[in-house]
Amino acid sequence: MTRGGRIAGLVVATVLxxxxxxxxGEPSAPGSDPAQVDAVDAPEEGVCxxxxxxxxxxxxxxxxxxxxxxxxTAETYAxxxxxxxxxxxxxxxxxIGAFAFETCTSALEKFLGGDVSVTxxxxxxxVWFRPSQKAxxxxxxxxxxxxxxxxxxxxxxxxxxxxxxxxxxxxxEDAWMACVKxxxxxxxxxxxxxxxxxxxxxxxxxxGEPAEAYPGDAQVETTTRDFCSDSVGAWxxxxxxxxxxxxxxxxxxxxxxxxxxxxWAKTRD
Length: 269
What we know:
6 helices, disordered N terminus
C-alpha cells in the first residue's frame, strides 16, 4: 500500500486482470464432448460452457457446450485460423501465445463494448484454447477465445448472463468491476465491486508501444508507482491523505502483449 501525501510503503500486486489467461497443459476428461476432444475442424462461435478454474489452465478444451440461457461460466466470442506464418510453428511456440493475446484482447474489447482500461479493470477476461496435440499433429491450426468472469486470483469463475456482449458499454455495473477486500491488493482475491470491499481498480497506465522492448522491472514499477500516485489522487478528488496500490506486470506478460499497469484506490464503498 502507498499513501498519497505521505509515503507509507509499497504494495506491488501481480494479479492477472483483464489481460487474458494463457493456458497450458492437457484437457481434463470430466464433462468432455468426445466429438471435440481431437477435433481438427474449428469449434463453434457463440456457444457457452460451464468451465472451471482447472479447465482454463489447459492448452485445449473439449468441455461440452451448454445452453447460454442456463448456468454457464464461459462464452466463445471469437474463433479462427492461425495465420499462415504460424502454420509450421511448434505446439507451444510463444509466437502463438502472442498472436492469441493480441487477437483475443482486441476482440474482447469490441465484444464487451468497453475500452482497454475499463476492460482491464473488469472481472471479465479471456482464455484461449488451441487444438489438442493429436489434432495439431493432424494439421489443425485453429484458436478459440472464451470470455470468463474471474481468473487466477478468483475463488471460482462467475456465472455469466446469457451473453456478455455489450456488458461494459457506458457505465458498467459494479457486479462486473474488480475490487479487493483486505489490507492490501497483493495476494487478495478479486471480487465484484458490488460486494463490500476495501480497494477498487480505478485507472490503468500505458507503458509502451507494441514494438518496444521491455524496459525492465525497475522502470516499469517506478513509472507505474508515480503515475498511480497522481492518477488515484485525481480520482479521489485530491484529498490530503490517501492510500493507493498498483499492479504491474513483468517481462513474460510484456512479451505476450500486455503494455499496461493497474492503479487501485483505497475506498470505503
